Amino acid sequence: MGLFDFFKKKETKETPKPEKENNSIALSMPMFKGGSYSLDKVLEDLKSHWGLEVSEISGDDEAATLIINGMMAAIAKMPAPIPSEDLESIFGYSYLWNNVEKEVPEHDSHAIVSILDKSKSQVEKFSLMTMINASILRTSPDAIGVYQGSQTLLLPKGLYIDFADFLLEGNLPVILWIYIGLIGSEEGKNSLYTFGMKDFGKEEIEIIDSQMSRSDLHDFILPVLNYILAYDVTLKNGETIGFSEEQKIKITESKAVYLDGNSLKLEL
Q1: Per-domain residue ranges for the chain?
Q2: pLDDT tens-digit readout, 218-227
Q3: Residues 117, 24: Cα–Cα separation, whole Å
Q4: pTM for the structure as a whole
Q5: 207 — phi, psi (to 5°)?
Q6: Which of 115, 151, 171, 229 is positioned for an S-S bond with 166, CB 3.0–4.6 A?
Q7: Which residues of the chain have pLDDT under 50?
Q8: Would you say domain 26-171 falls under CATH 3.30.310?
Q9: According to the model, what pLDDT value does residue 223 have?
Q10: Nearest C-alpha neighbor of 79 from the set 47, 104, 107, 46
């Protein structure tokens, strides 16, 4: 029995609010230093590593559209770096990339990967985007990592490739999709917030002033996010969640502490 068979959610008597349809494009930018990708090598990796069906290929190394497992994707080379003003402001938050302040400014070109199919769910689109990114990184010696501006994520090559393979195991690489902010206080308490859940039509989550360590908070929230996205779950004010029948973590919706608008607070 898998982990999420044990992840229980206590329902309240509130009337569920229908989830708004989210037709946003999934978009990311692989970065390169000194070279770029080969479309032929990327296509071969999509077939051999991921087992995907690729058809209706139109274009070349400079720009191409294609149908992958029924979804339309586009890949385009950009012979210039991503503007530094878009990147420098998030260096301080990019704890997943060692030496980010040195390595990212050295990139001299990038690509744009986008999934254009509005008929698919965000999870399906982000999954395909992740596979394409990983194939680009794996087949391009000059690739250094991926920038996802909508989620303020800078992700190094090795980490991205490793976590993308979660998809082969039937799990979601949420660490590649959602930014997880970790904040400590002088009193020794720690807080956490997510940034990017709204791209999936979900509320952002915060944990405020917890006694748990930041690493434990990070490890706790990953399966929660996986559960929400994998099963299209909508958490609501007044419910409880837990990893067992005994564990009941209260959910409260209120004004966000580290984000704009409201967030769902998990009381830990």
Answers
A1: 3-17+178-266, 26-171
A2: 999 999 999 9
A3: 9
A4: 0.90
A5: -125, 120
A6: 171
A7: 1-22
A8: yes
A9: 94
A10: 107
